[in-house]
Amino acid sequence: MLADSHCHLNYKGLEEDQPAILARARARGVTAMLNIATRESEWDAVIATAEREPDVWATVGIHPHEADQHPHVDRAMLVDRAAHPKVVGIGESGLDYHYDHSDRDRQRASFRAHIAACRDTGLPLIVHTRDAEDDTAAILTEEMGKGAYPGVIHCFTASRAFADKALALGLYISISGIVTFRNATDLQVIARDLPADRLLVETDAPFLAPVPHRGKTGEPGFVADTLAFLAQLRGEEPTALAATTAANFHRLFGKTTS
Sign of dihedral through CA atoms 72, 77, 78, 84? Predict the structure, then answer.
């Protein structure tokens, strides 16, 4: 019983062979996959995959890299598309100052629109943050003051201080295959200590394939390898940790059980 809380089934590398990729994931015990949108042009395809597959759900959102290209995607548009029964989250959205593919003010405005949509719908926010800890934490905190909303920090690679802030806000933290990398010692220490009831696992497929698949195209089935590594790191039984993280996934993304 495994949940991949973040994958991109309609990205190149996965979309061409979706049936086989889904079959391999199911064979490894993956019972839930969240197919994440990053730009408006993907929404229809991402939702269509979720409509077709009973164990796949969808999100609608604009990645911070795409913020400049989507000034028209506002709170109302996100709320409207999130009414679909298989859309269970808003995002991914957030701030990425590493590449600065979009203007930072535009990124921040888009991020706040996504949070407002989460507040309106009650759906979780999927947060992307890279080299932007301070601004991300400030916006999350300020917006939480306007009204609570659920969410998850996806593909966590930030500091322990940022993890503590996210947890204090009631957010979940999702660990990707990066945790299996040899040089990810700081992340491994943080992941070892995260509270079990706020922990998710993900692949971010087709990216970030974990050891022993590093360098290959990532697949949702590889979440089993990340989970196994994480269980050993935390001194837990893999079956128990799989059940815990899957239960966390369905609790956070409540529409998956409706």
Answer: negative
**pTM higher than 0.85, yes or no?**
yes
Cα gap 257→85, rounded to integer Å: 11
**Token pair for 94:** 């957030």
Per-residue CA distances from 207 to 10, 117, 234 (Å) = 13, 27, 24
Q: In this structure, what are the phi and psi dihedrals at residue 87, rounded to the nearest 5 degrees? A: -90, 115
Burial readout 71-94 (b: 16 or more C-beta within 10 A, e: otherwise): eebebebbbebbeeebbbbbbbbb
Cα(206)–Cα(9) distance, rounded to whole angstroms? 8
The residue type found at 114 is H
Q: What is the pLDDT of residues 129-176, one digit of tens each?
A: 999 999 999 999 999 999 999 999 999 999 999 999 999 999 999 999
CA distances to 6, 102, 117 from 71, rounded to whole Å, are 24, 11, 15
- Residue 91 CB-half CA count within 13 A: 28
Task: Work out the burial of residue 39: count CB atoms within 10 Å of its CB; fewer than 13 is exposed, 13-18 middle, 19 or more buried.
Answer: middle
pLDDT digits (tens, 9 = 90+) for 83-134: 999 999 999 999 999 999 999 999 999 999 999 999 999 999 999 999 999 9
Nearest alpha carbon to residue 143 among 164, 120, 160, 162: 120
Cβ atoms 85, 56 nearer than 8 A: no
